[in-house]
Amino acid sequence: MALSSVSLMKLLGLFVFCGFIGSPVLAATYYETFVIQETSYTRLCNNTKNMLTVNGSWPGPTIYARKGDTVVVKVINNGNKNITIHWHGVDQPRNPWSDGPEYITQCPIQVGANFTQTILFTEEEGTLWWHAHSDFDRATVHGAIIIHPKVGTTFPFATPEEEFTLILGEWWNANITDVLDNALQSGGDVQASDANTINGQPGDFQNCSSNSTLKFQVEQNKTYLLRVINSAMSDEFFFGVGGHNVTVVGTDGSYTKPYNVEYIMITPGQTFDLLLHANQIQNSSSPSRYYIVASPFFDGSPVVPRDPTTATAILEYKTNGTANSTAALVAPVAAVLPNFTDTNAAAVFSAGLHSLASATHPVNIPKTINVNMYVTVSVNQLACVNSSSCGFRLAASLNNNSFQNPKIDVLDAYYSSIANVYTADFPDNPPLFYNFTNDTIPNQFFFVEKSTKVKVLEYNSTVEIVFQGTNILGGENHPMHLHGHSFYVVGRGVGIFDKEKDPLTYNLIDPPYENTVGVPKNGWAAIRFWAANPGVWFMHCHYDRHTIWGMDTVFVTKNGNGTNAQMLPRPSFMPKC
């Protein structure tokens, strides 16, 4: 298991050792090696399998840095299949070459080969993560990225006693490559996972798992920082701690106004920074153990396969430096979370998020928009070709365009002016307007065709995208992620977006600054961003089956004037297709 708790004093020692302390302006460069390899793991009794990992651990190693640092990672593929690695939420200014999505910014790293990627932490501060960006590999190939404030600055809140990283994920008894292959062969949906996990462990409520339930030890009247990451392929989660509220202080590598809540709702791809004040030991009879719980949230069609299992860890109070030995005989205090399908609870939580918007962490919201896009988000059908086993197969689309990965990556094609790889005609609006959220939608709107369409943006243009959920094949929440940028979530609503009325409700003062936004079931979400990062950048749903089905597109941001507004040159060692 990867490191899940780290003392701030130990981190401080690391920074001193590396020469951080003593210079208020010095940024550092670190070097890491990620070895992709098969490793044997057993969960849920005797279910043992080999699976891809980084350096033999699941979750994989944590990357630590300060704002302004550079981390260079040599990825060595000793696994059994080609793979890529993406640094989720890192803007990578002018450097799409190291962003990672297969056939978008690079060809996969072939078995036996290696690729060195440079990660530039220029604006991010807080919790992000890295993961594979090929096939379904990120189910087991992922880990945390923790970016502390630059030297000479500090958190915009009191320094916590300790930090705990909690990565929410899934376990399949089957090989994850077989799970994907079976779905692609049948044309149907993906088999649900067999258990949800926290740092790779299912917890007390799952078969043969209680002996390995994770325990996080705290002391009375001290405050702890929980860094929560949703790495799941298919599940959104309600997350909370029995007997305790938490205070949201950051999301997606950006600080928020303190937001005290009983629970959070976190979509795949998102991260949250939560402060927990350990204040429950009032006397000798007070409970000293509390469940940390991740419980799925899903309000879509009941026919969609979903893993309903609850993952748990334990928050354990200690006195005189040790945990109470008799407390282990008493069941931990349960966390009270919303119901599995509680759409309103999810919406209420999301509506309470606001950027910190302080003098040291200001906002820069585009007020005048150059590019307006209205993008429908749909699960569709695709006619089977040369197959007698199905009449249609599942697909997905943005504005009725179902993205098809090319044979070489879009970035190389753009940079080297290679023709016939993509077309620059992704539409700003859907081709047809209808009642997108109606309970019954005519079959003529179900079907799509595959294409490789991208949207070209002028440098420094201001972009607004309104994502519109649709009820084709049943609506559900869609976590939309944009590479190379964070964006302001200026509005959300239910039903069909009203372009006259709904913009009047936008938050243009302190909207949350995120890289992944949940588009509500049969509703809409509006984002704004500056296209000030030249390069090729993927946008996709972070349900991986939806990405593979085609719920994605690519932004090509053109170079601006001056060296600092132009893409970095192509490295000579890019992987070959």
What structural keywords apply?
7% helix; 6-stranded mixed β-sheet; 38% strand; single chain; mainly beta; 577 residues; 5 helices; 7-stranded mixed β-sheet
Can you lay out the helices and strands and say which pair or pack?
Elements: E1 5-7, H1 8-17, E2 29-43, E3 47-54, E4 63-66, E5 70-77, E6 85-88, E7 114-120, E8 126-132, E9 142-148, E10 162-171, H2 176-186, E11 195-198, E12 215-218, E13 223-230, E14 236-241, E15 246-251, E16 254-261, E17 264-266, E18 271-277, E19 289-297, E20 311-319, E21 322-323, H3 343-351, E22 371-383, E23 392-398, E24 401-403, H4 410-415, E25 449-451, E26 454-457, E27 461-469, E28 478-482, E29 487-494, E30 513-514, E31 516-519, E32 523-531, E33 535-541, H5 544-549, E34 552-557
Parallel strand pairs: 2-5, 4-9, 10-13, 12-20, 22-27, 24-25, 26-34
Antiparallel strand pairs: 1-10, 2-3, 5-7, 6-8, 8-9, 10-11, 13-18, 14-17, 14-19, 15-16, 15-18, 19-20, 20-21, 22-23, 27-32, 28-31, 28-33, 29-30, 29-32, 33-34
Question: How does this structure look, described?
Answer:
With 577 residues, this protein is mostly beta strands. The chain has five helices and 34 strands. Strands 1, 10, 11, 13, 15, 16 and 18 form a seven-stranded mixed sheet that branches.
Describe the structure concisely for a colleague:
The chain has 577 residues and is mainly beta. The chain is built from five helices and 34 strands.
Mean pLDDT: 93
Summed up, the helix count is 5
Low-confidence stretches: 1-24
Oligomer: single chain
Rg from alpha-carbon coordinates: 23 Å
Q: Kindly state the number of beta strands.
A: 34
Please bin the fraction of helical residues.
under 10%
Structural shape: globular
Strand content: 35-45%
What would you call the structural class? mainly beta
Between the first and last Cα atoms, what is the distance in angstroms? Answer: 33 Å
Q: How does the major sheet shape up? A: 7 strands, mixed
